[in-house]
Amino acid sequence: MKTLLTALAFGTVCISTAFADWPINDKCPVDGKAARPIYRIKTKEGPVAFCCMDCLDKFEKSPASYKVTKKEYQK
Length: 75
Ligand SMILES: [Zn+2]
Hints:
The protein is of the alpha+beta class. It has one domain. It is 25% helix and 15% strand. It is built from two helices and two strands. The protein has helices spanning 2-11, 53-61; strands at 36-42, 47-50. Strands 1-2 form a two-stranded antiparallel sheet. A hairpin with a 4-residue loop joins strand 1 (36-42) and strand 2 (47-50). The longest helix has 10 residues, at 2-11. The chain starts with a helix and ends in a 14-residue tail after the last helix.
């Protein structure tokens, strides 16, 4: 059920900012590529997104090695 809800959330991009678990970054902290919200984990700062599963794994193993750049919210 949770998977279905997540899929629905991604289908409605225009209201995505209303979701509290939307990633805080839009660039992968590991290699700087465009982050994709489907690859994300929760951190103390908030949900962090990555470009791929490999980067997510690297970050999870040593979160302190990478700096997450928070995206600037559009007004
Ligand atoms: Zn990456």
